[in-house]
Design goal:
Shape of chain B: globular
CATH architecture of the largest domain in chain B: 3-Layer(aba) Sandwich
Radius of gyration of chain B: 19 Å
Radius of gyration of chain A: 16 Å
Strand order of the largest sheet of chain B: 1-2-5-3-6-7
Number of helices of chain A: 9
Distance between the termini of chain A: 18 Å
Order of helices and strands of chain B: HEEEEEHEHEHHEEEHEHEEHEE
CATH class of chain A: Mainly Alpha
Structural class of chain A: mainly alpha
Helix content of chain A: 55-70%
CATH architecture of chain A: Alpha Horseshoe
CATH superfamily of the largest domain in chain B: Dihydroxyacetone kinase, domain 1
CATH class of the largest domain in chain B: Alpha Beta
Strand order of the largest sheet of chain A: 1-2
Largest sheet of chain A: 2 strands, antiparallel
Helix content of chain B: 25-40%
Structural class of chain B: alpha/beta
Strand content of chain A: under 5%
Oligomer: heterodimer
CATH superfamily of chain A: DhaL domain
Largest sheet of chain B: 6 strands, mixed
Number of helices of chain B: 8
Strand content of chain B: 15-25%
Distance between the termini of chain B: 49 Å
Amino acid sequence: MAVAIAMDAQTVTAWMNEIAASVRAERDYLVQLDAAIGDGDHGINLNRGFDAVALALSTEPDGTPGKLLILSGKTLVSTVGGASGPLWGSALRKAGRALGDGPTFDLAQLVEAMAAALASIQDLGAAVPGDKTMVDALEPAVASMREGLARGASSGEMLRSASEAAEAGMRATIPMQARKGRASYLGERSIGHQDPGATSTAMIIRALERTVASTP
Amino acid sequence: MATATRRMRKIINEPDQVVKESLAGLAASVPDILRYDVANQILVRADAPVKGKVALISGGGSGHEPLHGGFVGVGMLDAACPGEVFTSPVPDQMLAATKAVDGGAGVIHIVKNYTGDVLNFKMAADEAADEGIKVEAIVIDDDVAVQDSLYTAGRRGVGATVLAEKIGGAAAERGDSLEAVVSVIRQVNERGRSFGIALSSCIPPASGKPIFDLPEGEMEVGIGIHGEPGRRRAPLGSAAEIADIMVEAVTSDLAAKPGSNVLAFVNGMGGTPLLELYLLYGEVEKRLRAVGLTPVRNLVGSYITSLEMAGASLTVLELDEQLTALWDAPVHTAALRWGG
């Protein structure tokens, strides 16, 4: 069995703060990736959204982990715009619902929450792996988490593998031709560029890894 | 902050306030036409809601001015929801606009086909339906540069959006039912086609950098309206050669019956002067006649733009009597005004 670590509302807040910090730090990099095959605003939009999430959580210290994820998702929907707002916003809301009402959650619940997030993104965006989207990073990360859970990996080990899987998926978008989103308008000219959505998704998983690693 | 960084060549204050300050300025310039709801970041027709009238709202990223705020007013839109530059607005804005303009006859959302716009409008429409407001969404996808296939997000919504807002707005103004207005807007989308080219990139205020580099002597062919690169790059042609490309792309896809009446819309992308747009219209007009189409109506100017991008797009709409009459109907907005 996995080591029984208990994650709680603080874990969610710490994860969102961690995402906000890394998106802020990598804002210009995401803009640069997006300028090549989109319109260059991905880093700016996500930065605005996760800063708003961090602010919303700081004024809402109470609540179950599920409720805080739902609040985070709602905040993203209301502040990001573009495609990434509804996609990550709905994903976090679905993840929050998957966690239920409990004050804590375990690794199995975390995996279910991330699977719900992935399902929501695929449902709304109608993207499948290979379309050169955020799904190309999230899908392997969720698969890796499931696999880690099945073999009883520790939380640290599970999320390290998930981050690596997300980053491998992110790099694998470089030779792909985009079939969804704004990059798809470029046709073959989208080949040779790393997808900005897959990149920010890998950052979100990496932030989760760092958060859980520092959970006592 | 501002003194530490080199000012970009734009008439702005702080980059992150550009959209809000521009909306406030537009509202100040036409207080008889519209008001700016600051809290919800929407522009609403001054006399909204008009009781018993079908209401039209549209929205999208900013940077395409005068689209959409410049088209709010009598005979066109009831409200516009501007997002950040080139970024779709959020559902809260569309929901607030829907409530502000609902006159009891239904609300139509005119949505340009971009993944972000479609998703955000859909979320807003779902919420409005939950609150008992009848919403119909119409997605405009007239850009022939993109093939509608499994390999793309579908054709983009570009120039036909302006025509749909004018013609649909006229139908709503004369008292048509929700179904009738929806049908006329769908007709504009089905019988309208567009194609654009760019001679330069554009500089979003938030990043301060051109989205792409276009070497001198080259042009981007098959662009959208977000400063994104086009389908391909080609040597910069003469106006005649550019008109050849545009007219061929648009008319071959539209496949209108020879002898059809059309509206020809030559649109500037923001950085191309009217001197050149009129010249281009002359080239386009000759070619349309040569393929058996009669441009009985036209619109020339910068109406759906990409900031300061140089370039132009052509939209051709096949007209019938009803569409022609609706086009001619009075309109009173910041950017289009005639009749009345």
